[in-house]
Amino acid sequence: MQHRQLNEPAEIRRRLFFILYLACWIAAILLFVIGIARGHLFYIAYALVLGGGCLMFKKMGEHSLQFKRLARSFPYGDAHDLPAPLRTQVENIFRAFHENQDWQQRLELRRKLTSLVKEKPELMEIYPKEISAINPKLTSYIRPV
């Protein structure tokens, strides 16, 4: 029997904030519908204010809480969800490659990325644009059967 891996605290916080974000949208929509059905402008005004807050929360969440990834994997996770250490490692390679101008260091980063893609071919499905920008030859890499 295989046990289910628990999420780390940062991932649990991100998911809780995502659930709060969804609850705010539901509340805004319900307030708006109730306001229209009963003719209460007060409810409609609250709904519009809450909806505006949701839009700001969404922008902040996409920037720092990975809401786009969570939306794809909500509520049970996704095959494309990577463990946090691997995700951080891959994203650090992307960042270092584009920040670095030394060709030797860029070549080493390209090699690291290539070995990671060979170990975890699903990276090609998750980060196709980023990987092809660093090593275009990997875009034709086919997952071994």
Task: Walk me through the structure.
The chain is an all-alpha fold. Helices cover 72% and strands 0% of the residues. It is built from seven helices and no strands. The model has no long low-confidence stretch (mean pLDDT 80).
In sequence order, what are the helices and strands, one letter per element? Answer: HHHHHHH
The backbone outline, from C-alpha atoms, is elongated
The amount of beta strand, in percent, is: under 5%
Q: What integer is the average pLDDT?
A: 80
Largest sheet: none
Helix content bin? over 70%
Short description:
It is built from 7 helices and no strands. It has helices at 9-38, 41-64, 67-73, 84-99, 103-119, 123-126, 128-134. The radius of gyration is 21 Å and the shape is elongated.
Question: What key phrases describe this protein's structure?
Answer:
145 residues; mainly alpha
Topology summary:
Elements: H1 9-38, H2 41-64, H3 67-73, H4 84-99, H5 103-119, H6 123-126, H7 128-134
Helix pairs in contact: 1-2, 4-5
